[in-house]
Design goal:
It contains 17 helices and 31 strands. With 718 residues, the protein is an alpha+beta fold. It has a 7-stranded mixed sheet, with helices on both faces. Strands 9, 10, 11, 16, 17, 18 and 31 form a 7-stranded mixed sheet that branches. Bound molecules: dioxothiomolybdenum(VI) ion. The site of dioxothiomolybdenum(VI) ion has 11 residues, from loops. It comes from Saccharopolyspora ipomoeae.
């Protein structure tokens, strides 16, 4: 298995991340953040800050950097300092630029802000009473026509067994290793911006719109990104402010968020509350499913965490179904996409409820899931293009020793041991992408697209599919990524990059071969007028062959370039698409301390064709560890005044190596060419889906205690 191409560069410190770029003459920007949750800024006294050593500029809503609000495929992006409204504690309200980082930071501390404070809403529980409809997420009801039920309530009345419970999940922070940063360098009217993101061409378009310049004038560079998963989807505050301040000052500006600032000046995952009702017959066949969800959002209502729509609307076959989604706007930091938005917290509720139903029925939880396996999303005619979820469970059960599980768990010395399972699903999607291939006279090829590799392994995958498409060894392929000057690639988000970019590489590969054979048979070419074929880097005609490098040299050319563009198309009218998986978790709960340790875990996944098993495995392991983190560790705590009580790495709990067991990953490998010609379905996000429920289900198996919120703490198990 090919190792990650950029691995050695990353572990030896040679990979240059955004803030590693040092340009002569660089000055430093530091954010000023609000210290109230809600209100209006009445005054900002910047006199002391402006006269502090080294200070070049102090920007506030009273003396602002002009920026427009851009809109991308991810929606509107909030732009800092444009008005005096404060809607959460820790909101960027000022930007100080100085000759050194320390001078900027010290001067930022001298800014005195006066507020007209208004009462802030920071409690999710209190806000539930004023929940609002979720934009873009309609209430949906599917009723079984055959049985003639008139309402979902009637369907539940007709169900011999009903479980109904409320589950909740905590707010989580995007704590990627690389904090958000930007280095902005203007040369004349052109901006080069080094900043981590999930799609350099999208960020360039955002910045151009914000700055009011032509997109061709903005060059975004991000060859390496230290983690993203939704947290770097939208253009960040440092990118906006560094670019605008650099233009105003005529100096390169570097701005890096501190870890504490990452907790509020970016965005995280919403907290959710979910009411799930399941109605079934005594054999475990679902009759009715109802899933009502509430999620927190910021005052601008900028994001909905779609838990009901992400799970119950898709996962199980049920004749009657009702889902709803509400939002609870609060004076808290913004919410946004985070690894499996919707499915991650949604699966905690749905898959806990399924486990509760299994207990109620006295049925094996895998058996119950298999019984309600769907061949299409409920109420839809379009069948899954490929689904091997049952096989994931069969394989997993055998490998994990599921047969040894008893309904009461078991004990091992002072430990209560239990096993739990859950389904993992995440839609298989694709976005538009363009890839360029340049064949060079030195017998090598460059495969390039703008996008980003936020640690997923996309660069390595591009080289593999490039080599395959051009029928060349991998060592003759140079992949390029993370530069908005390259052909507009996909977004590294939505678990789409391999399917989107891979398909475009294949199309570009075909175009490259067509171009070569046309060149070889053209007038004045070595095989003029002949029938030319291509294989493994060579062109053939009449029993003779030349390499493509020889051809280009014979024609006096250094290279030949083509592009391939792919986008979702007709397949969407024919099938439904999803990746699937089965999560197995074993926990040990200590009899006296009540601490929960995950002792074993296994995920078996159906993600179509696996391009590189080593990278795919590590991607899924990362997701599964994220799931443990959600189940047992992570929770942003908001104080009454809106300040985050644990907005730093000293107090925000994350798992460390000692918390994580061997994480076993297995695949069933069925290429899904109905979805795209590469046959790959997404696997970036699905690893985290279902894990928290599997942990909670295992805790119940071990202890008999059902915990309906995450993270599960010692106090829950006393
Ligand atoms: Mo992902 S949450 O689509 O980066």
């Amino acid at each position: 298995m090919t190792a990650r191409l950029d691995g050695p560069l990353k572990v030896t410190g040679q990979a240059k991340y955004g803030a590693d770029n040092n340009v002569p003459g660089t000055v430093y920007g530091y954010l000023v953040l609000s210290t109230i949750a809600h209100g209006e800024i009445e005054s900002m006294d910047v006199t002391a800050a402006k006269s502090a050593p080294g200070v070049l500029g102090v920007y506030t809503p009273f003396d602002k950097l002009e920026l427009n609000t851009p809109t991308s495929m991810l929606g509107e992006t909030w732009v800092p300092l444009q008005d005096r409204e404060v809607t959460y504690y820790g909101q960027p309200i000022g930007f100080v630029v100085a000759e050194t980082f320390e001078q900027a930071r010290d001067a930022a501390a001298l800014v005195r802000t006066g507020y007209q404070a208004r009462p802030g809403k920071t409690s999710f529980e209190a806000g539930l009473a004023e929940a609002e409809p979720a934009p873009g997420r309609e209430d949906l009801e599917i009723l079984d026509e055959e049985s003639g039920v008139a309402s979902i309530a009637e369907a539940f009345e007709a169900s011999p067994v009903v479980v109904e419970q409320t589950y909740s999940t905590a707010t989580q922070n995007h704590a990627a290793m690389e904090p958000h940063s930007a280095v902005a360098v203007w040369e004349g009217d052109e901006l080069t911006l080094y900043t981590p993101n999930q799609g350099s061409h999208l960020l360039a378009a955002d910045m151009a719109a914000a700055l009011g310049v032509d997109a061709s004038k903005v060059h975004v560079v991000n060859p390496y990104v230290g983690g993203a998963f939704g947290g770097k989807g939208k253009t960040s505050t440092p990118a906006f402010l560094a670019s605008a301040a650099s233009r105003a000052l005529g100096r390169p500006v570097k701005a890096t968020l501190t870890r504490e600032q990452v907790f509020t000046a970016t965005a995280g995952r919403a907290a959710t509350q979910q009411r799930v009702a399941l109605g079934a017959d005594r054999d475990g066949n679902l009759i009715a499913v109802r899933h009502d969800s509430w999620c927190t959002t910021d005052a601008a209502r900028s994001f909905v965490e779609p838990t009901s729509h992400g799970t119950s609307l898709e996962w199980y076959a049920t004749p009657n179904l009702a889902v709803s989604q509400r939002i609870v706007p609060l004076n808290v930091p913004p919410t946004t996409f985070m690894r499996a938005p919707g499915e991650a917290p949604g699966s905690f509720a749905l898959e806990s409820a399924i486990d509760e139903l299994a207990v109620e029925l006295g049925m094996d939880p895998i058996e119950l899931r298999k019984r309600n396996n769907s061949t299409a999303p409920p109420g839809k005619d379009l069948q899954w293009s490929s689904k091997h979820l049952d096989e994931c469970f069969d394989l997993g059960a055998q490998r994990f020793g599921w047969a040894n599980r008893t309904p009461q768990g078991r004990t091992e010395g002072d430990w209560q041991v239990g096993m739990g399972v859950a389904v993992a699903m995440f839609p298989a999607l694709r976005f538009p992408a363009t890839v360029g291939i340049q064949l060079r006279a030195d017998e090598t090829a460059v495969v390039s697209t703008s996008g980003a590799d936020p640690g997923t392994g996309l660069l390595t995958v591009m080289r593999h599919i490039g080599a395959e498409s051009l029928d060349l060894p991998e060592d003759r392929i140079t992949p390029q990524l993370g530069d908005s000057a390259l052909p507009p690639g996909g977004l590294s988000g939505g678990s789409t990059a391999t399917a989107s970019v891979g398909t475009a590489i294949q199309l570009a590969g075909t175009a490259a071969v067509d171009e070569l054979t046309a060149l070889a048979s053209g007038p004045g070419a070595p095989f003029a007028g002949k029938d030319v074929t291509y294989a493994h880097g060579e062109l053939f005609a009449d029993g003779e062959s030349i390499t493509f490098g020889e051809l280009l040299r014979a024609l006096g050319r250094d290279s030949v370039s083509v592009t391939g563009t792919s986008q979702p198309g007709e397949e969407l009218t024919k099938h439904s698409f999803s990746s699937f998986g089965a999560q197995f978790v074993e926990v040990k709960v200590h009899r006296w301390t009540r601490e929960t340790r995950v002792s074993r875990m296994l995920g078996v996944f159906d993600c179509g064709r696996i391009i590189n098993e080593k990278l795919a495995t590590s991607q899924l392991q990362g997701g599964m560890i994220w799931g443990i983190s959600a189940a047992l560790h992570e929770a942003v705590e908001v104080e009454g005044n809106g300040r985050l009580a644990n907005g730093d790495f000293a107090s925000y709990l994350l798992p460390v190596n000692a918390d994580i067991p061997e994480v076993d990953v297995e695949f069933v490998k069925y290429p899904d060419t109905l979805h795209n010609s590469v046959g790959a379905k997404g696997l970036g996000e699905i690893g985290t889906v279902g894990v928290a429920a599997a942990v909670a289900n295992a805790v119940h198996n071990a202890t008999g205690i059902r915990v309906r919120h995450i993270p599960i703490t010692i106090e829950d198990l006393l």
